[in-house]
Design brief:
Layout (H helix, E strand, L loop, with lengths): L1 H11 L8 H25 L3 H4 L3 H4 L2 H5 L15 H5 L4 H19 L6 H21 L3 H4 L14 H13 L24 H6 L11 E4 L3 E4 L7 E5 L4 E8 L2 E11 L6 E5 L2 E8 L1 H4 L5 E8 L6 E12 L3 E2 L2 H15 L17 H8 L7 H13 L10
Antiparallel strand pairs: 1-4, 1-10, 2-3, 3-7, 4-5, 5-9, 6-7, 8-9
Helix pairs in contact: 13-15
């Protein structure tokens, strides 16, 4: 064997006299195929669930949690495996992900998370790495299976329709709302899921025409009492006046402002303040059948024209409360508990009304709040901002 190696090296190290250029070309090509085939085969082995759960850190923790979720077993019989969610499908991103994952070998060798206690202590950091990755690539792995264009919104619940249609318009990253769907959340994260459902049980019943109420959560709006044609969405904690009650439907009036640049779809609570009261479909926003137009003013800060409008639409009978204070109590409690996980949260009057949305959106990646809760807490912060506070800050 040593003699064969020496002879091969002797031939390979000399100018090609006995071997033709064609032989070298074909030989190099075949060698490249063998190398690439071997490399790609080894790469694909690392893209199997068997490989992923080869270490007990994964098998005893996140893999067990996955088996308790809809991604493991469901009525359609389609199961998501580890690489489906955590390995990009296109080659260049896949290689980049593999290079990042090389740190996991280091963690295994040195026992960084080799016990349940160590894993739970690091769960928040590990989860945040993945959430950051999903946010950066717009949840590319999720959208390999869950495509907005293929969704049938009509078979969703009304609440899901409101959230998903809004997300589809912005091509929103799935992880913005869907944390903790395949694995448990870190212990120090407070989930807002279900909390507004409990609050909704406290909503007022028997609405009276002429009285004002506040929406408990985000609600779909319709053009008439049959509630078949969508007109937009009412944001949480938005004031409405009930005009008529027709069985399961109520006609409501909103006294709002909108920016006239563009279609004027977004409704705001007050002039020059980006306190979102909801939005209208393009068709409704452009129609005079559903609104009375009032004065127009120019915002000196932005130079944009704003218009006062009274909008009359229909909503489902329910999910309104007489007291906004009930909503503020819930929102404050959620803000105090959820937003103090990483640091002491800023006081409500630390920022002005129009600064709060940007600041609040920056916090959302660190907490797990559903869309209704997010909307309510943000409006609470805006309505208690420095613009509405008598205290100097």
């Amino acid at each position: 064997m040593i003699q064969i190696i020496k002879r091969f090296w002797h031939i390979a190290s000399k100018p090609s006299v006995h071997l033709s250029f064609g032989f070298l070309t074909i030989g190099g090509f075949l060698a490249g195929i063998i190398f690439w085939g071997g490399f790609n085969t080894a790469l694909e082995v690392t893209n199997t669930e068997k490989f992923c759960i080869g270490c007990h850190e994964m098998a005893d923790n996140v893999y067990v949690e996955l088996q308790e979720t809809v991604h493991w077993q469901n009525r359609s019989g389609v199961r998501a495996t580890c690489p489906d969610c955590h390995v990009p499908h296109n080659w260049s991103d896949k290689i980049a992900r593999k290079m990042q994952a090389s740190k996991e070998v280091w963690a295994t060798v040195f026992g960084t998370v080799n016990t349940r206690e160590k894993f739970l202590a690091k769960r928040g950091e590990l989860a945040q790495h993945e959430w950051d990755r999903f946010s950066a690539n717009n949840s590319m792995e999720c959208k390999n299976c869950h495509n907005y264009e293929s969704m049938d919104f009509e078979i969703m619940s009304e609440r899901a329709q409101v959230q998903m249609k809004m997300a589809a318009e912005r091509d929103q990253s799935c992880v913005d709302c869907h944390k903790g769907i395949a694995h448990n959340l870190p212990d120090n994260m407070n989930s807002g899921e279900g909390t507004l459902s409990k609050l909704e049980e406290m909503a007022t019943s028997g609405y009276k025409a002429g009285n004002s109420y506040y929406s408990v959560r985000q609600l779909p709006l319709f053009t008439d009492e049959t509630m078949t044609t969508e007109a937009g969405q009412l944001n949480a904690a938005t004031k409405v006046t009930v005009l008529a009650v027709e069985g399961d439907a109520i006609q409501v009036e909103l006294d709002v402002w909108r920016k006239t640049k563009g279609f004027g779809r977004v409704m705001f609570e007050d002039f020059a303040m980006n306190i979102n009261d909801g939005y209208l479909t393009k068709e409704v926003a452009q129609s005079d059948d559903y609104m009375n137009k009032g004065e127009t003013k120019i915002d000196d800060l932005t130079g944009l024209p704003w218009q006062k409008v009274e909008v009359k639409l229909w909503a489902r009978n329910g999910s309104l409360t007489e007291s906004r204070d009930t909503l503020w109590t819930f929102a404050k409690s959620t803000y105090d508990t959820s937003c103090s996980v990483c640091h002491t949260q800023p006081a409500e009057n630390h920022f002005d009304t129009n600064t709060w949305p940007g600041m609040f959106n920056g916090m959302l990646s660190f907490v797990n709040l559903d869309g209704d809760t997010q909307a309510l807490v943000l409006k609470y912060l805006q309505k208690h901002s420095s613009d509405f506070s008598d205290e100097a800050h």
